[in-house]
């Protein structure tokens, strides 16, 4: 039996979408991952990995 996930898929999708949008804006890109992770209660490295994977999946 697999261990339960710490973060729901909905939170993961929402956080990734918000972070990707913030990184596209030059005014808010610096520190966006840390800031958004803190606001949503997610570990910054987890969010960084999700964003990296989303960019890979999206062909960026």
In brief, what are we looking at here?
The protein is mostly helical and 60 residues long. It has helices spanning 9-24, 32-40, 44-57.
Description:
The chain has helices at residues 9-24, 32-40, 44-57. By secondary structure, it is mainly α. It has one domain: Winged helix-like DNA-binding domain superfamily/Winged helix DNA-binding domain (Arc Repressor Mutant, subunit A, Orthogonal Bundle), CATH 1.10.10. The longest helix is centred in the N-terminal third of the chain and has 16 residues, at 9-24. The N and C termini lie far apart (35 Å).
Helicity, in percent?
55-70%
In quaternary terms, these chains amount to single chain
Strand content: under 5%
Count the domains.
1
Helical/strand content category: mainly alpha
Could you state the CATH homologous superfamily?
A: Winged helix-like DNA-binding domain superfamily/Winged helix DNA-binding domain
Question: Quick check: average pLDDT?
Answer: 89
Number of strands: 0
Indicate the radius of gyration in whole angstroms.
Answer: 12 Å
Number of alpha- plus pi-helical segments:
3
CATH fold-level label: Arc Repressor Mutant, subunit A
Low-confidence residue ranges: none
Give the overall shape, derived from the CA principal axes. Answer: globular
CATH class division: Mainly Alpha
Q: Please summarize the sheet with the most strands.
A: none
